[in-house]
Amino acid sequence: MVNLLGKVGIITGTTADSIGRACALAMAKAGVKVVVTGRNETGGKITEKIINDAGYSAIYIKHDVTSEKDWENVVNKCIEKYGRLDILLNNSGESRGGAIEKLNLSDLHFLLKVNVEGPFLGAKYCWKHLCNSKSGVILNMSSLTSQQPGPGGTIYGPSKAAQNSLTKVMALEGAKHGIRAISVLPGLTFTDGVLDSLGNDTSKYKEPMAKRIWMGEWGKSEHIADTCVFLASKEANYITGVEFNIDGGGVGQIPKR
Questions:
Q1: Least confident stretch, 63-67, 82-86, 194-198
Q2: From 2.40.160.40, 3.40.50.720, 1.20.120.80, 3.30.450.20, which CATH number describes the 8-193+222-244 domain?
Q3: pTM recorded for the entire structure
Q4: Active site residue: 82, 156, 205, 238, which one?
């Protein structure tokens, strides 16, 4: 089992029963003291309680990743509570889809703000503490759509592709400080977000879409979480600047609803 005992991490976008919460719990089980953040205070408190009730250590802080003031607050409270920072997992993200002629410039600006500016601000305000760690890790949650655009992914995929490029810059600049930066690319992963996007009647799409995945099944949040724990560990200490796919081997074009 990977051991991250004594490490401290900030994980954004942890307020739903999805990848962020799974990552927070997996990191905590591996020994990380976690600061869990997000805009939904009710959901964030649930994540905090799940982790603490399991015998690990977590604090929730309300957080809009596009706000510099919020980032300053999160980082300051993390250092006040735990005294250090070793891992930044920029999980928070947004998605908007549709045909290009039906989208507005404001839709593109919104996605760039959350999916690119958010991780940028996270790295900016965590940087000196990650340098002090001597083994800092930045994991930016991207998407397979950054490599394989599909119908309706007109602006979401490109926003994540821009994030991938930002991650490479973080890796380049961080190498001399012992900081590694990695883009984490989930494929089709069954989460609450899927239900929000495609609807609760899973019979219409779950099996047809699973057949397009090489391994024949959707990913789970735990698949992503376990991989993030590995990538944050010393066992992965020669991995940086890459796009790390967690996708069951790949996926073809996603069918329209």
A1: 194-198
A2: 3.40.50.720
A3: 0.91
A4: 156
